[in-house]
Write a structure and sequence with these properties.
Blueprint (H helix, E strand, L loop, with lengths): L3 E7 L4 H5 L12 H15 L5 E5 L2 H14 L4 E3 L15 H7 L1 H8 L13 H18 L4 E6 L1 H11 L20 E6 L5 E8 L8
Parallel strand pairs: 1-4, 2-3, 2-4
Antiparallel strand pairs: 1-5, 5-6
Helix pairs in contact: 2-3, 4-5, 6-7
C-alpha cells in the first residue's frame, strides 16, 4: 500500500504575528500578507493535490485553510485538536505588556519547561498530546492518502517533534524547528509505523509574496 502523505502548514501571517503579540487561542485574523501567503500555498499544493484538509478552528488557521482549500476544491474540516497552545493570561498581550503585567509568570514561561502551563493555559505536553492523538486518528482514517494540516507555530513544532520521536522531557536536549508562516513540512507514514521526513519548512512557493 502507498504511504500516507502528511503536509503540516503553519497559518499565514496574522495580525498578532505582525504586531508581536501572543496568539494562543485568541481571535487574530490574517493580514493581507497572510492571505497572499495562503493563496500562494494553495497554488503550490494544487500541483500535487490532496485528499483532505484539517485545520484549527481559530480564525487565522481557518482563513488560511479556506484559501488553500479554494485552490484544491476541498472544504477544510475544523477541529480544536489543532489549536495553538493556550497561553492563558498572556493571550493577546505584546511581549513587553506580558513582561510588565506578569513578570514572575513571564519569566517561568521563558524557561519553556514541557510540563509547566501558564496560568489559565496549557503546557507543551498537553498541547502535544491532543494534537498527536488527532494525528493518529487521521492516519487510520486516511491511510494511503495525502492530508494537509493547517495549524499554528507551536502545535506544528510539537507535531514535528512527535513524528521524529523527540521526547519532551526536562532533561532531553532541546530541538527547535524553523517554522515560517505557510511553510510546509512534508512526511510519509508507512504501514509498519515508520516515518520518512521529506522536507522541513519548505518556503520556495512564498517567494512571490512581498
Amino acid at each position: 500500500m502507498s504511504p500516507t502523505r502528511l503536509i503540516l502548514c503553519r497559518h499565514g501571517e496574522s495580525e498578532g504575528n505582525r504586531d508581536g503579540r501572543f496568539g494562543g487561542h485568541g481571535p487574530a485574523p490574517l493580514t493581507e500578507r497572510g492571505r497572499a501567503q495562503a493563496q500562494a500555498t494553495g497554488l503550490r499544493l494544487l500541483q500535487e493535490g490532496a485528499d483532505a484538509i484539517y485545520c484549527s478552528d481559530l480564525v487565522r488557521a481557518e482563513q488560511t485553510a479556506l484559501l488553500i482549500g479554494q485552490q484544491l476544491s476541498l472544504a477544510p474540516q475544523q477541529t480544536p485538536a489543532l489549536r495553538e497552545r493556550s497561553v492563558g493570561i498572556f493571550t493577546g498581550l505584546s511581549f513587553d505588556e506580558a513582561r510588565a503585567r506578569y513578570p514572575e509568570e513571564y519569566g517561568v514561561l521563558l524557561q519553556r519547561e514541557p510540563d509547566v502551563a501558564p496560568p489559565e493555559g496549557e503546557s507543551y505536553l498537553q498541547c502535544s498530546a491532543r494534537a498527536s492523538r488527532f494525528l493518529e486518528q487521521v492516519l487510520t482514517q486516511h491511510c494511503g492518502q495525502r492530508v494537509v494540516f493547517v495549524s499554528h507555530y507551536l502545535t506544528v513544532h510539537l507535531l514535528v517533534l512527535h513524528i521524529m520521536g523527540v521526547k519532551l522531557t526536562a532533561d532531553a536536549p532541546r530541538v527547535y524547528v524553523q517554522l515560517h508562516n505557510c511553510g510546509l513540512h512534508r512526511f510519509e507514514h508507512y504501514d509498519d509505523g515508520a516515518w520518512q521526513v521529506l522536507a522541513l519548512n519548505e518556503t520556495a512557493h512564498l517567494s512571490v509574496v512581498l
